[in-house]
């Protein structure tokens, strides 16, 4: 099982590296694989060791099954919260530190041409234009809110000459130089998202852990404490 886990980690690392995922995200996915493998190794001997011991009678069979199913569902929810919460946190953390300390100013982006690009599993929409007399590129997804479905729809929603309020980062490169301005600067927005995700994610995990603990106690309470009494025959020797 450990060899299979190492193979999974190697394949996962190669794929995520090609897709340019952050290193901290790759490390977290590897940790999840190792944790799941360790849990399986720990549970396997306990589930298959020796002859099956006689089970205690159940005082509430239906409640016992419902509690067991709910515990399994809570573990699934716990895993999803941890996984997706970490993805959101890592993305916000990376964006936060990318823009943190970078000089910027408020400006205007005048659209010269828009581009709709269809990729294997997603779509991208961006534009070329002018900022303070310079030729710049800008991602249109934060501005559009709703993803367009074709080049014609994109041109209709963002016609040539459209002026968009932006934050301009002259010290950065590519589309990162131009950020749609609809609130605080990107560093502050990403910091808030990262901290809120961390706070709400940990709170949710604590609540789910408490529910699992209570359900485990309830499930154990469904087992009766009565033992099967085996009658014994005593033979008395007559003198």
Quick take:
With 239 residues, this protein is of the alpha+beta class. It has helices spanning 2-18, 23-48, 61-99, 141-144, 151-157, 186-221; strands at residues 105-118, 123-131, 134-139, 163-168, 178-180. Strand 2 (123-131) and strand 3 form a beta hairpin.
The overall pLDDT, averaged over residues, is 77
Assembly context of the chains: single chain
Roughly what fraction of the amino acids lie in strands?
15-25%
What's the helix-strand series? HHHEEEHHEEH
> Which shape, going by the Cα principal axes?
elongated
Q: Regions with pLDDT < 50 over 5+ consecutive residues?
A: 225-239
Integer tally of domains: 3
Total strands: the figure is 5
Radius of gyration: 29 Å
Structural class, from secondary structure content?
A: alpha+beta
For the report, how would you describe the main beta sheet?
A: 5 strands, antiparallel
Strand order of the largest sheet: 3-2-1-4-5
Instruction: State the separation between the terminal residues, measured CA to CA.
Output: 66 Å
Write the SSE topology.
Blueprint: H1 2-18, H2 23-48, H3 61-99, E1 105-118, E2 123-131, E3 134-139, H4 141-144, H5 151-157, E4 163-168, E5 178-180, H6 186-221
Antiparallel strand pairs: 1-2, 1-4, 2-3, 4-5
Can you tell me about this structure?
The relative contact order is 0.13. This protein has a five-stranded antiparallel beta sheet. It contains six helices and five strands. It has 239 residues and is an alpha+beta fold. It starts with a helix and ends in an 18-residue tail after the last helix. The chain has three domains: 39 residues; 82 residues; 80 residues, OB fold (Dihydrolipoamide Acetyltransferase, E2P), CATH 2.40.50. Helix 1 runs antiparallel to helix 2.
């Amino acid at each position: 099982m450990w060899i299979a886990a190492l193979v999974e980690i190697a394949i996962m690392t190669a794929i995520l590296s090609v897709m340019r995922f952050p290193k901290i995200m790759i490390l977290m996915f590897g940790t999840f694989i190792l944790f799941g493998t360790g849990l399986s190794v720990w549970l396997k001997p306990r589930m298959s060791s020796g002859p099956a011991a006689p089970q205690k009678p159940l005082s509430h069979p239906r409640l016992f099954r419902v509690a067991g199913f709910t515990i399994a569902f809570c573990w699934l929810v716990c895993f999803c919260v941890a996984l997706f919460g970490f993805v959101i946190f890592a993305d916000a953390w990376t964006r936060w530190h990318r823009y943190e300390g970078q000089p910027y100013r408020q400006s205007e982006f005048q659209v010269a041409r828009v581009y709709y690009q269809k990729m294997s599993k997603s779509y991208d929409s961006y534009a070329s234009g002018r900022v303070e007399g310079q030729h710049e590129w800008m991602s249109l997804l934060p501005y559009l809110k709703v993803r367009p479905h074709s080049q014609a729809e994109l041109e209709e929603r963002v016609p040539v000459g459209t002026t968009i309020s932006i934050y301009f980062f002259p010290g950065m490169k590519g589309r990162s130089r131009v950020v749609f301005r609809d609130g605080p600067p990107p560093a502050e927005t990403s910091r808030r998202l990262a901290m809120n995700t961390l706070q709400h994610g940990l709170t949710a995990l604590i609540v789910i852990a408490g529910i699992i603990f209570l359900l485990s106690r309830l499930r154990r309470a469904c087992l009766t404490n009565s033992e099967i009494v085996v009658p014994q025959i005593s033979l008395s020797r007559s003198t």
